[in-house]
Amino acid sequence: MKKIVSAKEAVKEIKDGATIMIGGFLSCGVPDKLIDALIEQNTQNLTMICNDTSYPNADKGKLIVNKQIKKLVTTHIGTNPETGRQMNTGEIDVELTPMGTLVERIRAKGAGLGGVLAPTGVGTIIENGKKTMEVDGKKYIFEKPIGADFALIYGTKVDRFGNVSFYGTTRNMNTVMATAADTVIVQADEIVDEINPNEVVIPGIFIDCIVEREKDLETV
Amino acid sequence: MELTLLSKEKTREIIAKRAAKEFKSGDVVTLGIGLPTEVANYIPEDQHVIFQSENGLLGVGKNTIGDNMDKRITNAGGICVEIKKGACFYDAATALSMMRGGHIDATVLGALQVDEEGSLANWMIPNKLVPGMGGAMDLVIGSKRVIIAMEHTNKNGEAKIVKKCTLPLTAYREVDLIITERCVFDVTSVGLVLTEINPMFSMDDIKESVSADFIISDNLTYMNID
User: What is the ipTM of this complex?
Assistant: First the structure.
């Protein structure tokens, strides 16, 4: 049985300077209550790994606006002008990574691999400063694994064993992030006694604690 | 110049309609955000093109409105959508495996610049506009066909079809076809080949507004602009 805690309790161990991963694609499948708790706690100098920085007034975007992020590893910042502004003034260090490369770097960490060979970005500035390798005549970029101290992820239904299932397009980065952090906190729309084993997407072994969000989806 | 001949709306319509002719039933297609998304509006209902989305949906349907909106089902632009019969959901690793791994038949994307070698720049203007690449680099590397659907020139009337991209590349030599409101180019091993021209424009118009070298196809035809 996994710990079931409040959002406030769940993020308490996240200290200044920590590296965090946050699931979600824009505002879909995002652990918004955990983010709100992190904003409330006002943890500083965070390194954030995420697919995008959402919108200025929403979830991940609010952490940017609140200036809690020192370094950002992401794939897209175009929906949040504040991220671009902070990047241009040097307030935030932004590493833009192709989405497929980011997801495989995270997966590599979680799977205990030493990195991945990606064809994406060959012949572009993504290649700069990185080792390359030819395999059967095709050039690849060596990309290192990436993990975090904490992963904040979303799950639609989570059972007491930590098994997670999803509805719709909410899986996104949540699945790989669950495998690649020291502590994994899942925000569930609903906690259930048991999920049909055939429908489990993230096995409970990867989850450390669960936070239940009230069932009102309108506020997502 | 004759640049005011076409309204913004008509320009986009010509491009999207032409791009919509590039698919056949059963094709799996990923559309970029903006103008490329409009391509879906011109594909006949009876042609079963399957739209893939990097946020985790194969079988993207129409945008939903009002009570039908489900915030847990969106497209890559974050817009709530319907799902088609046979649709499925998946995570980002699977989405990008489809895109990078050669499982997508065609992608339609916008561009800041495309050059005569088929290299593409569409993810940043240094120190000005840096939205990021999202899944675009993976898509361009992995799709069987890369179709660029874009307005012929930029806001300042400067060529976007160039000899060599000066903006940071999205991918090196991956583009197959370029569609604008004025013409269509095939990207071939011998360079750009002009295959279609909008009858509202002359060959001189095209030559003046493209800064790349190109060959005129022996089978040059007029674009349909109805």
Answer: 0.95
